[in-house]
Structures are given as C-alpha cells and as structure tokens.
Amino acid sequence: MRTALVATMLVLFFLGGFSQAAEKDAFEIETEGSCRIAAGSAVELARAVALFNAKRKAVELAGRYLSHMRLIKAYRENKEEVYSLAASAIAARILAEKKEKVGSDTFYRCRIRVRVQPADFIRAEIAAAAMEEDEARKPFREEVEQPLPADINPGRDIAWVYLFLRQKKWRPAIIYLDHLEKKYPDWDSIYMAKAITYYILHNPVFMRKALQKACRLGNAVACSDLKHLKRVQERDFGLSIPD
Asked: Which of 50, 74, 110, 180 could form a disulfide with 97 if both were Cys (CB 3.0 to 4.6 A apart)?
C-alpha cells in the first residue's frame, strides 16, 4: 500500500499546478538513436529500439539540468526505471530515419525532436510506483517465471529489469533479461543490464561476455569499461572469452 500512497501523493502534487509553473523550464531537444537489425528480425523492432534510444538520450539530457534546478528529484535508486518510462511515454517528431549498411551489419537510425518537461518525470514516477505495486501482487510462480508482454515497448520492458535489481530479485532479473534478449536480439541496453546483474551475482566472466556483446552493438560505455577494467572481484578481467 505504501507505493500506492506515494503514487496518489504524486498525482495530487502534479494536479496542483506544478506542470504549469514549470512549463517555462521545458527543453526542446534533438537526438539520434540506432539499433542493429538482427538477421531475420522485423525492421519495426529495430525502429522501435532506435526511437527509444533517441528519446532516452533526450530524457537523460533534460534530467541532468532539471534535477539541479530541483524541478525534479535527483533520482538515484530508481533512476533507470523513471527515465526509461519517461522516454517511453514522450512524443517524438521524426526528423529523419533510414536503414544503413555498415560492413556486414545493417542499422536502423533515426533523428528526432522531442519536448521534455518536469511533468514527464512525475508521470514516469507514478508509472514506476504502479509497476512496483503490480509486482507486489504477483503470485510466486509468475514472479519467478516473469512472463514477458508481447507488445513492443522497450522503455517499459527495460524498466522492469531495473525494478527487479532494485528489489534484489536476482533470479527474476536474469530470467527476464533472457526473455528480453530473445525479444530484442540486438539491443545493447539489455547486455549492459546483464553485465550489472552478473557483477552483483559475483560472476565477472559472464559480466565481461555481456559487456563484449554490448560493445559490439556500439555501446560506448561497454567498450570503455572493457578497456579500463583489469580486475573485478579479485579475478583477472583481461582474459579473452570465446562466444
């Protein structure tokens, strides 16, 4: 009930005129996103991930400034959930989109313009609280198996992973990530989340393998981590690991 109470308070706060007061602090942002089109996978899937990636960048940029103005929280534990849900919900105007061949791979790329304002974060926080409430009501079997919704919604899907991690539900997190890997076979964010999960589970070998996959998919953070990490949890991190 605590999360439901928090969500109600947030709704009242939001309806109290906050969005109008902060309208002048809205950002208009242009960003780009991309996703590799997996062999045999629908172009629409790569397009949805590329679009989400672009919107997620915009939310990250706006959040960096809005949090310093104290117009939104400096989200910590649930930042990934709130930012992912905010990116999922905001509307975007497509400026350009195309399929592009890079070597033997084909990528879907899009450039967008979005408007991000404090109200977007409040709505996302309400949605995150509702997800937490929904998770608390799940029966044990469903909680362990973690069935995955069939519709394409990258922001919501990745938000569930970080909710499990925040709640220290390691097994459901791994199961859900395995489902996501099949649903979005070439989305680098899945493998970054896997790397974090494997680190928590004291498995640097699989952590490195997940980072390698994310790096191959163009994730600059994963590539940097692989370059700079030398030892993780007292284990050599420089050994090559075959696929």
From this structure: 110
